[in-house]
Amino acid sequence: MIFAFVGLVLQLREKIVDRKNPAENNEYYTLGGLLFYLIIASIAKQKNPHYEMAVLPLFLLMGARWAVQIYEGKNFRKLKKVVSWIHLFVGIVLVAAVYPFLLYFFPNGKMWVWVTVVILTGFFLYSISWKNSLHRQLTSLFLAISIFMFTLNAHILPNLAKYHSPIEACKVFNEQSKDGAELHIFTEKARSWGIFFYSKNYGRYLISEDDLRAANLPAGDWLYTTDEGLALLDDMKAPYEKVEEMDHRSLSRISMKFINPKTRASKTEKRYLIRLTN
Fold it and tell me: How many whole angstroms from its chain centre is CA 67?
C-alpha cells in the first residue's frame, strides 16, 4: 500500500505536470477509478473494510507500476531511500508487535507457534540485510506480513475467542445436551446471534420475564443469559442448574484495557449457561 499511495501521488503529478508526451501518457482508467472511489469513501457516512475489494486490483496495478519505476529507474533515488526506510519501519513494527502477545498479553503460546514465528523472524532479519532493491522490499514485507498474520490467526484470535462466550456456550451445549433440547437466549443484553449459528438445536430469543413465561419451556432446555437473567429466574422461583459461568467480551469490542491482563477483568462481563430442571 505504500507503493500504491506513493504511486497515486506520482501518477497525479504525471497527468497534471508531465504532459509532454500525451501518446505515452493516455491511461486514465486506473487513476480515475481510484480517485472516484476515494471521493465517495471520504463523504460516505458508512464505511466497511470490504468496500475496498472493488478497487484493490487498481491499487495493485498502480503499486506494481511505480514500484518498478522507483527501484529500477534512475529518476527516483531520493524517493527510493524514503520508501525503503518506510518499508523497513513498517516491517519491524509488524514483527515486533507479535512478541508482546506471545510473551505478555496471552503468554500461553504453543511450541509450534513459537518455532514458526522465530524461524520466520530469522528469515526477516536476514532479508533486511540484503542490498537495497525491489526484491528485498517485497521479500522483507512478505515475511513481516506473514509473521503478523500467522500470529494473529494461530495465537491472538484463538485467545480472544475464549472470551467470546457464545462460542464456548454452544460448544458445551452441543456436547452435553440431550436430543431434542433447545438453547435459548434470555434477556436483551445476552443477545448474540452466534448462539443460533453454532448451537446444534437453537431455540428462541426471549427478552423479558413475560416472554419466558409465555414460552413455557420444558425441563431439559437450556438458556444463555446474564446476571439479570439469573435474577429474574430466581424471582420466578424457576428451577435450574448452572452449567457454565463464563467471562465475556465481544470480539467486535476489543480494547487495550481488555488486551492488558492487568485490567482485563474490569472489561469483561459474566454470561451463564443454565439448564432448566423440574
Answer: 28
User: What residues pair up with 202 in beta bridges, in sequence order?
Assistant: 183
CA neighbor of 259 nearest in space, from 272, 246, 268 = 268
3-state SS, residue 88: helix
Give, for 270, the enclosing helix (H) or strand (E): strand 269-276
Burial (0-12, 13-18, 19+ Cβ within 10 Å), 7: buried
pLDDT in tens, the chain (278 residues): 889 889 889 888 888 876 666 556 677 888 888 888 888 888 888 777 788 888 899 999 999 999 999 998 888 989 999 999 999 999 999 999 999 999 999 998 799 999 999 999 999 999 999 999 999 999 999 999 999 999 999 999 999 988 999 999 999 999 999 999 999 999 999 999 999 999 999 999 999 999 999 999 999 999 999 999 999 999 999 999 999 999 999 888 889 999 999 999 999 999 999 999 98
Listed in sequence order, the residues at least 6 apart from 209 whose beta carbon sits closer than 8 Å to its beta carbon are 232, 235, 236
CB 196 within 8 A of CB 157: no
Q: pTM value? A: 0.80
Compute CA distances 6 → 10, 88, 135, 214, 229, whole Å: 6, 16, 18, 62, 55
